[in-house]
Amino acid sequence: MKIGIPKEIKNNENRVGMTPAGVFALTKQNHKVYVQSTAGIGSGFFDEDYQEVGATILPTIEDIYNQSEMIVKVKEPIAEEYGLIKENQIVFTYFHFASSQPLTEAMIKSKAICIAYETVEDEEGTLPLLTPMSEVAGRMSVQQGAKYLEKPIKGRGILLGGVPGVKPGKVLILGAGVVGVQAAKMAAGLGAHVTIMDINMKRLRYVNDVLPNHVVTDFSSEYSIRKHIKDHDLIIGGVLLKGGKAPKLITRDMLKEMRPGTVVVDVAVDQGGCFETTKATTHEDPTYIIDDVVHYCVANMPGAVPYTSTIALTNVTLSYILKLANFGWEKACEKDKTLAKGLNIVKGEIVYDELVGIFD
């Protein structure tokens, strides 16, 4: 199969769809891999690295789409790419269709085979291709939140870990999934007081078992959220509904109950966000302030650490890419039900149940 790896063109997206190690695995099995010139440079991989493992370097994104039967990306295609996608072309990437009607309509119109990383689901109900980026984003949410709590950036002026004689900052995490647990680990490691909330008691028991004593759990409800937001310094939203829009757990009126300089980080922004006041931002201009509350809502947080993120992503996507390349999408999805869950739009038809009727 002919596989194309274009350069990501979303604002400040420095990741690339595959490492040279991944390309080597494909060329070793006699697949043809095309990599757009400088596609990997933001992640620390150069054209020569790809050429050494058998890739062909092409100069433009148009060349990549024109030559390839399958496109392997990181982020969803943006408007400039819509017209490049061909009928029956496989596009394997993060799509997050639920948060974008224009993208959904464009992919229906393209009649391509759209396989979304974020809905590939195994028998245990876990999302193996979303997990590594959720791990990165969860850890980064605390790293970024701690920075934006600094006074020069309009935060409360809080050092999360405190110092002797000064109590530590307080972190509230909504959701005890992968993002929430990783955020809790980072916040606890800094010495902050951490409260993590969920409606899944099994997850709360897990958190209680594996994290230190200064990470406390609470069952999530509007009442309990309203109580906690009044005295927490950093609030992290890490709620996920598979393939659907995130629920709005923090409403606009709740901002007035927070202290000025509170920082909110919405990791669920790709799925529409779990704060009512969320609007997607970029690494170039990551924050905005509403009612004296600092919002950090960057839609591609792992793109700020592209070396780590690209390797972590290729580690989990490569086995599925090889199946698609070796067998074609139909046979590969027949053989692997986990991969089949990634099918979202096929030849102009929505085939993922959670997307049907979402924009009606």
From TrEMBL:
<dbReference type="GO" id="GO:0000286">
    <property type="term" value="F:alanine dehydrogenase activity"/>
</dbReference>
<feature type="binding site">
    <location>
        <position position="203"/>
    </location>
    <ligand>
        <name>NAD(+)</name>
    </ligand>
</feature>
<protein>
    <recommendedName>
        <fullName>Alanine dehydrogenase</fullName>
        <ecNumber>1.4.1.1</ecNumber>
    </recommendedName>
</protein>
<comment type="similarity">
    <text>Belongs to the AlaDH/PNT family.</text>
</comment>
<dbReference type="Pfam" id="PF05222">
    <property type="entry name" value="AlaDh_PNT_N"/>
</dbReference>
<feature type="binding site">
    <location>
        <begin position="239"/>
        <end position="240"/>
    </location>
    <ligand>
        <name>NAD(+)</name>
    </ligand>
</feature>
<dbReference type="GO" id="GO:0000166">
    <property type="term" value="F:nucleotide binding"/>
</dbReference>
<dbReference type="GO" id="GO:0042853">
    <property type="term" value="P:L-alanine catabolic process"/>
</dbReference>
<keyword id="KW-0547">Nucleotide-binding</keyword>
<keyword id="KW-0560">Oxidoreductase</keyword>
<feature type="binding site">
    <location>
        <position position="220"/>
    </location>
    <ligand>
        <name>NAD(+)</name>
    </ligand>
</feature>
<feature type="binding site">
    <location>
        <begin position="267"/>
        <end position="270"/>
    </location>
    <ligand>
        <name>NAD(+)</name>
    </ligand>
</feature>
<dbReference type="InterPro" id="IPR008141">
    <property type="entry name" value="Ala_DH"/>
</dbReference>
<dbReference type="Pfam" id="PF01262">
    <property type="entry name" value="AlaDh_PNT_C"/>
</dbReference>
<dbReference type="GO" id="GO:0005886">
    <property type="term" value="C:plasma membrane"/>
</dbReference>
<feature type="binding site">
    <location>
        <begin position="298"/>
        <end position="301"/>
    </location>
    <ligand>
        <name>NAD(+)</name>
    </ligand>
</feature>
<feature type="active site" description="Proton donor/acceptor">
    <location>
        <position position="270"/>
    </location>
</feature>
<feature type="binding site">
    <location>
        <position position="198"/>
    </location>
    <ligand>
        <name>NAD(+)</name>
    </ligand>
</feature>
<dbReference type="InterPro" id="IPR036291">
    <property type="entry name" value="NAD(P)-bd_dom_sf"/>
</dbReference>
<feature type="binding site">
    <location>
        <position position="75"/>
    </location>
    <ligand>
        <name>substrate</name>
    </ligand>
</feature>
<keyword id="KW-0520">NAD</keyword>
<feature type="binding site">
    <location>
        <position position="134"/>
    </location>
    <ligand>
        <name>NAD(+)</name>
    </ligand>
</feature>
<feature type="binding site">
    <location>
        <position position="15"/>
    </location>
    <ligand>
        <name>substrate</name>
    </ligand>
</feature>
<feature type="active site" description="Proton donor/acceptor">
    <location>
        <position position="96"/>
    </location>
</feature>
<feature type="domain" description="Alanine dehydrogenase/pyridine nucleotide transhydrogenase NAD(H)-binding">
    <location>
        <begin position="149"/>
        <end position="297"/>
    </location>
</feature>
<feature type="domain" description="Alanine dehydrogenase/pyridine nucleotide transhydrogenase N-terminal">
    <location>
        <begin position="4"/>
        <end position="137"/>
    </location>
</feature>
<dbReference type="InterPro" id="IPR008143">
    <property type="entry name" value="Ala_DH/PNT_CS2"/>
</dbReference>
<dbReference type="InterPro" id="IPR007886">
    <property type="entry name" value="AlaDH/PNT_N"/>
</dbReference>
<dbReference type="InterPro" id="IPR007698">
    <property type="entry name" value="AlaDH/PNT_NAD(H)-bd"/>
</dbReference>
